Structures are given as C-alpha cells and as structure tokens.
Amino acid sequence: MDTPTTSSAPPIPTRPGESEDAAALREVILRKLTYDLGKSRLGARDRDWFIATALAVRDRIVDRWIDLTRATYQSGAKQVYYLSLEFLIGRLLRDNVSNLDLLPTLREALEPLGVDLEKLRIAEPDAALGNGGLGRLAACFMESMATLSIPAFGYGIRYDHGLFRQIIRDGWQREYPEDWLNDGNPWEFARPEIAHEIGFGGTVEAVTISEARVKHVWKPSETVQAVAYDTPIVGWRGAHVNTLRLWSARAVDPLRLDAFNSGDHVGALANKVKAESISKLLYPSDESASGQELRLRQEYFFSSAALQDLIRRHLRVYGDLRSLPDRVSIQLNDTHPAIVVAELLRILVDLHDIPWDEAWPITQKTISYTNHTLLPEALESWPVPLMERLLPRHMQLIYLVNAFHLDSVRLKHPNDGRLLSSVSLIEEGHGRRVRMGHLAVVGSHKVNGVSALHSDLLKQTVFADFHRLFPDRLTNKTNGITFRRWLQQCNPGLTSLLVEAIGPEVLDRPEALAKLKPLAGDKAFQEKFAAVKRANKMALADLVKDRFQLRLDPDAIFDVQIKRIHEYKRQLLNVLEAVALYDEIRSQPTRDWAPRVKIFSGKAASSYHRAKLIIKLAHDVARVVNSDPTVRNLLKIVFLPNYNVSLAEVIVPAADLSEQISTAGMEASGTGNMKFALNGALTIGTLDGANVEIKEHVGDDNIFIFGLTTPEVEQRRREGWQGQRAVEQSRRLQEALEQIEAGVFSPDDPGRYRELVGNLRGSDYFMVTADFDSYFDAQRAVAERWRNPAAWWTSAVINTASMGWFSSDRTIAEYAQEIWNVPVKR
C-alpha cells in the first residue's frame, strides 16, 4: 500500500555545526514539498524532491532577476535579443546551484533528509528544446551573456515534445514523442498575460492615405496566440540573471461551440489542433508540403512574437522606435529567424508609419546574423507560392527589398547579369524560391561565421558575391563552450585536480589553464590526470553495463563520435574503419593491438533515410564484432541511444579520442571538439571547422590530422571523383566494402547495404573512400601513442591546458564589442 501523502514526519532539527543557510534552505525545501506539491517527506519520490529543491533554488534567483531587469531599463542599457529555434539547455539544477555557489549548502541541507542530490539531478528531465551543436551553442551563449553581465533575452519555442525520443529496435532508429513536460517544469514562469497574436494567410489591402501615400493593411485569415514562458538564466557566481522567453502556441478560439453542439466533436477542435501543432515538435519532417508549411509557420511564429515583445517593451521605456538600434541588438542564430527582417520592416512601416527610407536603415542597424553552415539545404529557401499564401505582406516587402537591393547592385556593377542573379533574394531556377540566407545578409549590419576556416569559406563560396558587395559585413566569431558545465560540473574530479595544481583562479579565468602546460610532462601529475580519466571511464562503463549488459574495458581507448548522424559528419567512415580493424585483428591475432571501444551516439533526422541506414549498419557491425570470441575484447562497438546533454555529460569526460572527421569544408565549427579536448581527449580529425584552430593551440604533435583539405575536396569534385578509384588502391577498404555489400553483417537481409556501398563506389560526394586509408593510418598512430603512456598523457594534459581560448565567454565578449556594441563586465 502506498504511503499516504498527507502523513507527517518528525521535524528535522538544526544539526550541531550546521550553517544557518543550510538549515534555512532545508526549511524552504520542506515547505515547497508540503505546500506546492502536497507531499509529505514519507511519501515523496525523487521526482518530488527534485521539484521542491528546484523551486527553493528558484526563489534564490527571483529577487536578483527582477532587480537586474529593472536596473537595465532604468540605466537605458542596450539589450541583446538572441533568436534561436533551438536552446539545448539540458538539466538546470546543477547548473543553477553551481552558478549560485550553493552546492555545499544544498548538500548540507539535504543530508539530514536522507536525500541524495545525485538522484535529484537524474530525476530532472532534459529540456527537449534542441538537437545538437546549434542549440547547445545557444545555451552556452545565454549563460555566458549572464556571466559577463550583458542584459539579454533569449527567444525560442517551448516545444511540447522537442525533437523526438530515439529508441533503437533491432538496430533501427524509431522516433517517439519526448515527454519532458509531463510532470511540469519547475524552472519556468508561465506568463499568460504576455500573449501576442500571430497572423497567417489572408489578404493585403492598399488604403490610400493621400495622393503621395498608400498604407498597406494585412488582414490575416488565421490568428494564433504566442504565450510566454520565462526561465531565468543565471551567470557564474550569480553575476547577472537574464531571461529565456519561450513561446507556446494557443488557438484564439480553442473550441467551436456551434460545431461541438451540432455533433462534430472532433471538427470543433480542429482550430486548436492546428494552432498548437506549431509548438509541438522541433523540426517536423518537411518531406510533405504540409510539413514544409509547418516549419515556416514555426519560424514566423516565434520571430514575430519576439519582435512584438521587444518592441512593446522598447516603446514602454523609450517611446520611439527610431532609437531601436541604440537600445536593441537582435542576433539571428542561423537562418531560421531570418523572416525577422521582413517582419521588423512590416512593424515599422505598416504599424508605426515610419517611412521606408528610415525603416530600412533601422532594420539593418538592429539585426545581425550568424551563419552556421555551408550546406545549401541548410541555408533554407521557401517556395514563393507558399510565402505568398502564408505571409502575403512579407512577400511584398521581400520583393521591395530585393528591388532596391538589385537596383543598387546594378548601379555599381552594370551589365553583370550573373552577379544580379547570384545576390537576388529570389532564386529563379527550378521553381521560384525565397533565399532566407540572402535575406539575412542583406538585412543585417554584420554577418559572422563560427570558425576561422568557415568564415573564410563563406567569403569564398556561398556569400562570395555578397563579400564583394559588402566587404566589411562578413566577419568571424569562433564558437566557444561554457567551462562551468563542460568542465566544472561534468568533470568534478578533473576540476579538483586543476584547482590543486594551478589554483582556484581557473574557476573564473579559463585562460589560466595555460599554467598547466609546464606540468604536462610531470610523471606524478600525469598519474593523477590518468586516474581521473579512468574513474570517468568506469562511470561510463557502468552506465553501458546497466543499460545494455555490455562490459567495457576501462583500460581500452574510448574512441568517441557523438553528434547528429549525417553523411558529411562521416560516421560511415568510422564504421568502415571498425570493419577493417576487425579483419586485421582476426588475421593477425599475435600482434600487439591496443584495445579499443568505439562509442557512437546521435540522432538521424526522421526523414533522413540514409542516415538511419548508417545507424543500422553500426548496430549490425557491433552485433558481429561484440559476439566474436576471436577478437578477445580487443574491439567493442556500442551505440548509445537518445543522445542528449545529460548523456554527453557522462561521455565527454570519459573519452580518450575525439572523432571530428567531417569532410573538409563542410563542418562550420563544431563545439564537441572543444568539450572533448578540454576534458583531456586527443582529437582525430580533418582540417575542418574549429579543428584548424584547435590544432594551432594544441600543436601538431598533440592532434591526429588526416585526409583531404578543403581545396583538395573541391578539386576532386570538379574532376568527377569516383570512389571506385580509391577502392581499387586499398585492399582493406575493398575487403570491408565487399563484406558489407555481401551481407556478412546483415545475413537476414544480404542486400540491405548494396545501395549504400554502390554510392561509395560511385560519386562518393563526402569523400569517405578518398580519406579511408589516411584515416586508417591515423588510427594506427593513435594506437601507437596509446601504447606509450607518458607520450599519451603529455598530449592529453596539453589539450586541456590549451583550451582556455575556446571559452564561450571569449566568444560573447567579441560579439559584444565588435557586433552588438554593448559593454562587458568581467
């Protein structure tokens, strides 16, 4: 029989020597448990204790949050508004407790209650608000803005189910709704009084005001409400508290009573279902026309809500939108919120009667845009008919912007039809489409890439003509990570060792890590460093054993590739090397092999069938390798499902080798590479993204670089590269492909991978075959270094010591000084 929730328990007396703050915090937690949750100590579960504790910690945040927000407006400080379709914030309990410097106090408060803080941390679900690097970067940036006392709002969508929960069944990815909100979210504050109406469809009426002026009035045929939910974001040591405001979609009329009363009970709810679908899922499949429309609705929904919200606030405080660039900086995180350019123009021109020649400079001076990719499909473009139907007034404004833009280009570059076509906001090729990346570039005063290589490639490739037109507009801001989460919280053992070795300043100044370099060759320090790594590997091994009944050798190389499953990230190359290594181990059993565990994790987009097939191949190979006694545990392969921040926090500190093996020129930056190196993993990678800058910081001897360079990849593509050329020159590759193609790893369906292998033998766009031998050789160099512990741990320590520059605090300080024009407090 369950313990009644109304039962009481004896009071907890203050313990001898206990701090007053711990006793006070415990009292608040007990009150939250009783009066907010209606539970007693005897009937409370871990989830109840987590919510009560989170509410008590939240109380410690609110006063400062309110005071700092008020002070920002009183001082007239410029605010940053960061618009992102994703915010992968992860669990917040440890984040907030750590940043408030409450961890010892909270442990002391919970101990007499018999409550384990680690169990509370695990009871908190991951906020399902993102997928990978883009969303995690946004979360790091929000924390760094608060740490540097930059007043900021983050704007996004409060997804009911986020991306999806990945379950692997017989090696195949299956998608299920993520239920992170089932038990409520104790960190957020519902703001039902803050609701903005978002229009779709309808008509645009031209109303004559005078002979010289026509006013355009958009009359949407459908209206949806965007309702605000606020989460406070606390900076390090409570320096500042900013707001993450997420929007939930609600129908204006949730129930049609006439239809319901006439018996159409399902149809009466149709408007509610259609409206609320906007905030149901992150990245709904766009294979169908309706899925594509839903994505556009999502992007306009949160962009319009954000603009309405910040303009409402600005007018209340300053009264005039002409001062917007002086008080507001809007940062677009990728092309998803690019419709902001047209929406801000609509608000200025149509709703506030600001003339075009004033509205356009206001728009450009207020907005800046971060590009995250060179992939054309990720730059986003929308069919003109869809835009005209869903956002008719915005389409008119985009045409107008394009006309003025092309007139200016034509004036400076007459008779250059190719240039006009290249920089036009409308693509006239196979079906007319609106180029959202182009709109973001034209509508911004600054455009940045996210690594030195990526920013240079932007200037040379996708935005080359824009760089020619606006040579001062494109710039670089190399990504960074927040060390508070990716070192101090997820790797407390290493953090304690660093404080012991170089002092507590490392907790506040990432650049202090450089003081570790003289200890890189110190044997005693190496032993301590290695012991921390082994303890982290044991923790990961325990997780794998508990979940998958697979034993991992903590003394093996933990070779890790965790990221979104995509062909350009080349998980397939990693799997092929595993097959070749498996063959080598079997054919040369007496060789001195370095034991290795290959660890994969990541989600494939629900409509990305080839990426799902790669996941299946990884499982098929793992099944054969892991069950083969002749391998003698020298090679293990494991795929950890449902990758999220919390899983990464266990994997990253345990990694020995960081796989950053994307096709050169295709990864914008990467931030996983920084997290791994910070935690003492060595990188094996191509000269792509931020790998280039990591190499510069750690030195050539402490990273394993392989493969074609970006110019070499482009040259092969121009020459019509065929993978069969590489296959014919590589015995290992040929044998691996033949086994996969013949069904050695898929006896239930021998033809499962024939198309996949055929693609590799053919055009092989991502250069898997071209880089295979170089990658295989680099992996043997890794094994050779591993067999020399002194050399390995020297390199590992140097990696950690060299990561100070990759702090998101440095990145945000550069944004603040060079793009946003806001002061930074350190």
| Strand portion | 15-25%
CATH topology of the domain at 535-804: Rossmann fold
The gross shape turns out to be globular
Helicity, as a percent range: 40-55%
Strand order of the largest sheet: 5-8-9-2-1-10-11-15-16
Distance between the termini: 56 Å
Would you kindly provide a written description of the structure presented here, covering whatever features stand out?
With 826 residues, the protein is α/β, with parallel strands linked by helices. The protein has a domain at 535-804: 3-Layer(aba) Sandwich (Rossmann fold). The protein is 48% helix and 15% strand. It is built from 33 helices and 22 strands. Helix 20 (492-502) packs antiparallel against helix 21, helix 21 packs across helix 24 (645-654) and helix 22 (571-587) packs across helix 31. The longest helix is centred in the first third of the chain and has 30 residues, at 46-75. It is globular and about 90 Å long. It starts with 19 loop residues before the first helix and ends in a 6-residue tail after the last helix. Mean pLDDT is 94; it is low at 1-7.
Q: Which secondary structure elements does this structure contain, and how are they paired or packed?
A:
Layout: H1 20-36, H2 46-75, E1 79-83, H3 93-99, H4 103-110, H5 117-123, H6 133-147, E2 152-157, E3 165-169, E4 172-176, E5 189-200, E6 203-210, E7 213-219, E8 222-234, E9 241-251, H7 257-261, H8 270-276, H9 289-318, H10 324-327, E10 328-333, H11 340-351, H12 356-366, E11 367-370, E12 381-383, H13 384-390, H14 392-412, H15 417-423, E13 426-427, E14 433-435, H16 436-442, E15 446-449, H17 452-460, H18 464-469, E16 474-476, H19 483-489, H20 492-502, H21 523-548, E17 557-562, H22 571-587, E18 596-601, H23 609-626, E19 635-640, H24 645-654, E20 657-660, H25 672-678, E21 682-685, H26 691-698, E22 704-705, H27 710-718, H28 724-729, H29 731-742, H30 754-761, H31 768-786, H32 789-801, H33 808-820
Helix pairs in contact: 1-2, 1-4, 2-5, 6-33, 9-11, 11-12, 11-14, 13-14, 20-21, 21-24, 21-32, 22-23, 22-29, 22-31, 29-30
